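Handover notes (outgoing to incoming on-call)

Open items:
1. HTH CENPB-type domain-containing protein: sequence verified, structure written out, both below. Nothing else pending on this one.
2. Nothing else urgent.
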Amino acid sequence: MGRPGRPPFFPELDAKLIAWFKEKREKHIAVTCKSLRYQFRKAELSTPLPADFKASDGYLFCWTKRHNIGRRCITHTGQADNREKREIAKLTEEFLLSLNMKTVEY
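HTH CENPB-type domain-containing protein structure tokens:
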């Protein structure tokens, strides 16, 4: 999955984290920087690390880059709209009617 480059300082920890990450992604669970940091600390209990090690933003960035993991978010922008024109017209009409009902009160 990763690119050639500098090997990880802690290969055992790296392997545990990438396995955890893949498991979460397969279940369509969002992985945040906060959850990654938590997993680093959790994995650290079974993998001794130097006392001064910190899962900083820079370390996390390099870790995601090393494993070719992009920062993504769920969006519908750019996706094809497969609805028929009649369905879109009906939804638009319903929206405009509800909007009209709300503005009548003012």
